[in-house]
Amino acid sequence: MNREIAVSEALDLLDDVGLENVSTRRLAKRLGVEQPSLYYHFKTKKDLLAAMAEAAMAPHAHAALPEPGDDWRGWFLDNSRSFRRTLLLRRDGARLHAGSTPTGDLDRIRRKMTFLIASGVPERQAQMAMLAAGRFTVGCVLEEQADADAPDPEDLPDNVPALDHEAAFEAGLALILGGLEQQTAGPETAH
Prior knowledge:
mainly alpha; Arc Repressor Mutant, subunit A
């Protein structure tokens, strides 16, 4: 057993039992090893969860970075959508990600920020917009994944509409982008 296999199996365990039921005991049983052997790779459960969060973000972490000349608005939307899709790939993906620190992704984050700034977005607004979009996305996915156990929309009373999670996400994302565009506009065009 190596660290990569342990993390992969831990993510499969997450999909099978949910975040609240992931434990080093269950993972050791799944791997056919004694629980103390996991401590070689993960000193604590927190270390295991951090490794799982990083691995779960791989699809987003390997998405194409923006290129000079790309439209920053389109890229901003696509980046947030990629993040959402990645969180939705795993059961409890948003809960796993919440509170994690993207230490393995710092160079990519710097390149994204450099792109926004080079595109004319003031640095502070770029930072706040990326933070807001990230937290908004995690919150939306938390709600969407929690809603998996909600009643069937057809069982709802007539006056209670079913929530279209993707449409709600897109509407909120458009509002964040619109606010960023207003902050980015020169004083002659800002209202």
